[in-house]
Amino acid sequence: MAEKLDLISKCVRTFQDFPTKGILFYDICPILKDPKALAAVTDLFEEHVRHTYPQVDLIVGLDARGFLFGPLLAQRLGVGFVPIRKKGKLPGLTSSVAYGLEYGKAEAEMQEDAVSAGQKVLIIDDLLATGGTLHAACELIKHQKAELLGCLVVIELKFLNGSEKLQSTPVFSLIQY
C-alpha cells in the first residue's frame, strides 16, 4: 500500500495561480498518463470499498475528474456509474444544487432517474478542497432518497477543512496535504 501511495504522490503536480490568482492547483493528469499510477489509485479505492462498503450499489462521479476514476472503480466492483454534471449538460428531467467554490460559484445536477430511492451510493472525485462540490453532490443524492455511504477522493486539502462541510458523511482520501 505504501508503495502505491508513494507512486500516486509522485505523480501529483501543482500549479500556482490556476485557475485564478491565489489558488494552488493540484493536477492529477500525470496519474492518468501513468498506467501503474492509475491502477494504484483504482486498486486502493477498490480495496477500501470492498472492505468498508461491500453493499454499495452505485458509484457517482463528479464532473469532470470523478468521471475518470468512477467508471474504472464501478467496473471493478460490478456496479453502475452515474455522473453529476455542471448545470445544463444533461438531457431530460434533472435536479440541481447551487454551491460555492474557492474561486467562484457553480451548480451541479443529475438526472432525476439516475439514482433510485434506497440505493447505496458512494461519490468519487479527484480532490476535496473547501467541500462545496462534494456537499452539493451529497445533497443531490439525499434528494433522490438514496443512502449515501461516503465519499472517495484522490487528494484532500485538510487545511481547507472541506470535510467539515460534509458533516457526518465519511471521506476516504488517498493523499492528504
UniProtKB/TrEMBL annotation:
InterPro entries: Ade_phspho_trans, PRTase-like, PRTase_dom, UPRTase/APRTase
Keyword annotations: Cytoplasm, Glycosyltransferase, Purine salvage, Transferase
Compartments, record wording: Cytoplasm
Leader sequence segment: none
Record domain Phosphoribosyltransferase: where: 31-156
Enzyme class: transferase
Primary site of residence: cytoplasm
Pfam families: Pribosyltran
GO MF term set: glycosyltransferase activity
UniProt pathway annotation: Purine metabolism; AMP biosynthesis via salvage pathway; AMP from adenine: step 1/1
Catalyses which reaction(s): AMP + diphosphate = 5-phospho-alpha-D-ribose 1-diphosphate + adenine
EC number: 2.4.2.7
Family under the similarity heading: Belongs to the purine/pyrimidine phosphoribosyltransferase family.
Role of this protein: Catalyzes a salvage reaction resulting in the formation of AMP, that is energically less costly than de novo synthesis.
Protein name: Adenine phosphoribosyltransferase
